[in-house]
Write a structure and sequence with these properties.
homotetramer; mainly beta; 8-stranded antiparallel beta sheet
Amino acid sequence: MPATAEIGSTTWVIAAALIPEWGEGPGAPVASRETASILNASEREAHASITVFFQNREPIGPYRVTVPARRAERLCFNDLEKPTPIPHDTQFACLIESDVPIVVQQTRLDARRGDAAAITTIAYSAN
Amino acid sequence: MPATAEIGSTTWVIAAALIPEWGEGPGAPVASRETASILNASEREAHASITVFFQNREPIGPYRVTVPARRAERLCFNDLEKPTPIPHDTQFACLIESDVPIVVQQTRLDARRGDAAAITTIAYSAN
Amino acid sequence: MPATAEIGSTTWVIAAALIPEWGEGPGAPVASRETASILNASEREAHASITVFFQNREPIGPYRVTVPARRAERLCFNDLEKPTPIPHDTQFACLIESDVPIVVQQTRLDARRGDAAAITTIAYSAN
Amino acid sequence: MPATAEIGSTTWVIAAALIPEWGEGPGAPVASRETASILNASEREAHASITVFFQNREPIGPYRVTVPARRAERLCFNDLEKPTPIPHDTQFACLIESDVPIVVQQTRLDARRGDAAAITTIAYSAN
């Protein structure tokens, strides 16, 4: 049986996030995505609360995400709707707080290159 | 004589992994790879156990990898076969546990750009 | 109401920074940028002091940046003017010191690819 | 006067390094580089010792690098000659040990894209 464990941190930050808006004609991809990949390696369901910060306006949130035990979730910022969608082409940062230790990695995908990832980094873990 | 030491951690996580599947005709590269580069700088052989997590199914593993003393191993997820190959075009996360401290760095290679690396990050070390 | 907290570190380093200088004709982009995205998730205004180090000359600075409470700032090295602009096409490192904990992520943008980010990494936090 | 301080760690690892070898005709770039950017923010000269590890052979080194006080060095692995050049197109890992705390960031440059960086990550700090 594979290993499981409570691995990671309960507080994570991505400081440089952006949902790209491609508008270069009919061939423009619609699938470029800003994502946070979340691993919950534990035996417990993880409940994450996400706050999104901007340069010139009040933060919005919390967005709620549930990651089942022993699962890897791919949170796509493009798809968040409640409390309100995140504006495109706007730099933002996000704070992810979970009741169970998780690991968070940022990836921005550029669909124009065949779903190749453009950038990635392990997020900052605050504790 | 070069230095050797027990450097790193025994528990590592890559949260955003993906084996790309290129299918764009006869010129399509077959060598795009998701890899975990592992340094064992110690004088002891390291035995690593890898568990792979998914969004919608049970984790699989453990995969077993041995890294000799004073060697840098390049683990290619495409090549893992036992207990079962990792599905392509599917996001996964992996937990790497070793009996000797190691250092793990993720790299995804895009063979269409002359073996240039597309993305890299030091993995998350959990202890 | 979204969460706020004093998250991060007061000392950060980006070791490999560079303001690209594109000069490939009339279509050359002028918007390629070296940036440090800074999250101040706290309730207090953060005052950051930035020192820039070079290979062959004395460091310059401090540059001063203020990040309001609960805001994500995007510091563009291209735009710094006081005490002196940072030379282009020259490798530099920077030390960012803040009176309030912040999180810093480096991103270099290559405007020739539609504002897609070329590289990113969470900066090094020194405490 | 800008700030100076002993910031960073004395032990660093890059696990996934590679000196690219481009050989695609007369237009092939010769300047693609694997680099480690090193910040010595202290008032003391730093003496770094670098050991290079491979998959199938004994490690080589130490390579010696001196970083003056308050300087940012860009160590290019392509240029190392003593005790022996690092083979191209061969994965390697490196251990960087310094007598003064430093910060290390890996960057691989792809000269075919106008000196844009292809990948970067803060290296792993072991203490």
